[in-house]
Prior knowledge:
The protein is an all-alpha fold. The protein has one domain (3-477). It has helices spanning 3-9, 11-30, 35-52, 56-59, 72-90, 92-98, 105-121, 126-144, 151-182, 187-194, 200-216, 226-232, 235-260, 265-287, 293-314, 317-342, 361-364, 366-379, 386-400, 404-430, 443-456, 464-476; strands at 61-63, 68-70. Strand 1 and strand 2 form a beta hairpin. The radius of gyration is 21 Å and the shape is globular. 56% of the residues are buried. It catalyses: a quinone + NADH + 5 H(+)(in) = a quinol + NAD(+) + 4 H(+)(out). The chain crosses the membrane at residues 6-30, 37-57, 72-92, 104-123, 160-183, 203-225, 270-289, 296-317, 323-342, 367-390, 402-422, 443-464. Residues 123-417 form the NADH:quinone oxidoreductase/Mrp antiporter transmembrane domain. InterPro entries: NADH-Q_OxRdtase_suN/2, ND/Mrp_TM.
Amino acid sequence: xxxxxxxxMSLPEVILGLGALALLMVAAFAGDTxxxxxxxxxxxxxxxAGVSLLGPAGSGGEAFYGLYRADAFAAFAKLLIYIAAxxxxxxxxxxxxxxxxxxxxxxxxIVLAAVGMGMMVSAGDLLTLYVGLELxxxxxxxxxxFMRRDxxxxxxxxxxxxxxxxxxxxxxxxxxxxxxxxGTTLFDGVAVAxxxxxxxxxxxxxxxxxxxxxxxxxxxxxxxxxxDVYEGAxxxxxxxxxxxxxxAAMCLTVRIAVEAMGPATDAWRQIVIFAALASIVLGAVAAxxxxxxxRLLAYSSINNVGFALVGLAAGTAEGxxxxxxxMAVYVAMTLGSFLCVLQMRDDEGNHLETIQSLSGLSxxxxxxxxxxxxxxxxxxxxxxxxxxWAKFLVFDAAVxxxxxxxxxxxxxxxxxxxxxxxxxxxxxxxxxPAPAYRASDSYIESGLIALCALxxxxxxxxxxxxxxxxxxxxxxxxx
Length: 479
């Protein structure tokens, strides 16, 4: 095997890994005064990793004896991950400065998490999958409790760690079962073993692996950590959790379902359909009574994972393409929503999280209210916003695969979800004004909100031809 070729295929992870170690030394010697410099250098690293996808890292094929895949599917997922990670770094300094918790380790932890996520979406082996997932998880546990003097943040980190360790154990047990009954950890080898009749041991392994991955994408019934962690973690960290790791875990689930368990589609499809419907319904119903905007967006993310799983349940190239399109639009909607949450500050600069504080926002901050309304309508899947197109694609893929009852129930359940999004819009536009938020003094946040709003607006439909071509090309790489 040519190790130089393999290293070129894994160049994004090499760039981020070596860069993170170098930045760690800068942070160690220069201290927290170097935070802004380290942050910008981290963004530059992520940009460099993204550019490297234009070479062998985006279409090179198998590396390291099949342990690693450099294909169009992984390249698309990594691009979304790097964009979400970069935004999460850019919005952090202003938030942490107010709380005197600005530390140079924050951007480095996100870069290290990005290395793990890159390995996840490029995994060609069950052990590569596990190593990448754990590298991402270890960084995430620290990020969740980053404000260690804040009780909510410390509690969020502890809950995430305990439940994450449980999920990792379940996943590792599933991997051991698949290895024991198929004799290999390579995805291709597992697929070959499953072409014959699925044995009871392989079936149990399949169930345990999907259960472990369901925790990472916060699908029902493994969603219990999501609202508490989203609420307790610092808002920039919550922004990160809701976007990049969600994309990585969803794309990893798609890859392992299609590549490793493709011959057993009928077995895992039942699990995916249950998780999809349960996530859509619970995410919609549980969000209705929430008073904290971050908890509401946590249930919204559970709801959206359910819709993405509808595309996976189809088990076709069109279904995978729909999932990728959905995740791309979801990242834009989620980043925009959390950027709006970061703007919720009183006169003294303290961050507010109650939905009630949004009352009458259309009269005090009309531009912010309009942007948040666009994101809420798009998350609800209301045309002509781009969120509608994403939902249409996953339901169309399900119908194309003969799963019209799943599509019908999903469409009906999406009406429930529209209620709590519309409740926020009603609060902003029809309730008596609450004390006005402090005017925005961050051009970065304002610019990113405007960009995300533009993407999910009707103008975003001009992106559909390109997005459709890229996602279908990525989906075909798995088949």
